[in-house]
Specification:
The structure is a single chain. With 250 residues, the protein is α/β, with parallel strands linked by helices. The protein has two domains: 150 residues, Vaccinia Virus protein VP39 (Rossmann fold, 3-Layer(aba) Sandwich); 64 residues. The protein is built from seven helices and nine strands. Helix 5 packs across helix 6 and helix 6 packs antiparallel against helix 7. The chain starts with 5 loop residues before the first strand and ends with a helix. Bound molecules: S-adenosylmethionine (SAM). The site of S-adenosylmethionine has 19 residues, from loops.
């Protein structure tokens, strides 16, 4: 089975899809309907999943690509073809509805995932719509009659962009902290260090204020850097940073 890597949050009749049955995509819409338009053509809205883009039924960080082409008209005739094709915005709630749509899009996107957003400015300027999300588009292209159609591409920030931080990032960060701590906090026995260690140690101003076990660790790290033939100024700089970090763990 092909993995679903694209979410179309409100697919309508899939007009802009080259392959309207693209197996990589999950097609969602809030309605399933069929109409015959005035030119006798059939308009079929048949989503894979009936879903509301304000509350999508998918887990956080699921898709690398999301497509969001919501209704852009708040005024349409009761039986007009535009309403059938594009749906209609609720006059009173459209700002909240689209705000929730953006929030959901970024929630279900993986870190660094791409959101493709389309808007037509016939009735509502795009500036009012982009103000409904804090994310900033990377690409913005106008097309169509009088440049009224806009295509925006957003790239979700790598980490911490949404609530519900992916578990694997948390896991990675925790693992790194444990690794760094074990590097920094090696258990060091009482010993006599070579004179060179004492020479560098004396240049680390805050060393004398550290607890005895940290002072031993600091000398151990200086000794290792010395044995690895690091230049003395670099050892002093590294030792000062280590001492500052140890102060936080004192
Ligand atoms: C502009 S059309 C999409 C056209 C589509 N991109 C295409 O290529 O044919 C917007 C669609 O959003 C759907 N829609 C409106 N409100 C929705 C909601 N809350 N959740 C999901 N879909 C919604 C409408 O039913 C309509 O089909």
């Amino acid at each position: 089975m092909t993995e679903h890597v694209i979410l179309d949050m409100c697919c309508g009749s899939r007009m802009f899809w080259l392959d309207k049955a693209d197996p990589r995509a999950v097609f969602c819409d809030i309605r399933a309907e069929e109409h015959v338009l005035c030119d006798e053509r059939r308009l079929v809205i048949s989503p894979d999943v009936i879903a509301d883009f304000r509350a999508l039924p998918f887990a956080d960080a699921t898709f690398p690509v999301v497509v969001f082409d919501p209704p852009h008209l708040e005024r349409v005739g009761p039986n007009g073809w535009q309403g059938k094709k594009y749906g209609k915005l609720n006059r009173d709630t459209w700002r909240e509805d689209l705000r929730a749509g953006f929030r959901e899009a970024f929630r279900v996107l993986k870190p660094n995932g791409v959101l493709i957003f389309k808007w037509n400015e016939t009735q509502i300027p795009l500036s009012q719509v982009v103000a409904l999300t804090d994310e900033k588009p990377a690409v913005w292209q106008k097309t169509g009659k009088n440049d009224k159609t806009h295509w925006l591409i957003f790239v979700k920030s790598g980490a911490g962009a949404v609530s519900g931080e992916p578990d694997h990032l948390m896991h990675y960060a925790t693992k790194r902290i444990v690794e760094l701590e074990s590097l920094l906090l090696v258990d060091v026995a009482e010993t006599v260090w070579p004179a060179e260690v004492g020479m560098v140690y004396s240049q680390v101003e805050i060393a004398g204020d550290l607890p005895a076990h940290h002072q031993r660790r600091l000398k151990h790290h200086i000794n290792r850097m010395w044995l690895e033939k690091m230049p003395v100024p670099a050892i002093v700089t590294a030792a000062r940073s280590l001492a500052a970090a140890m102060e936080n763990y004192a």
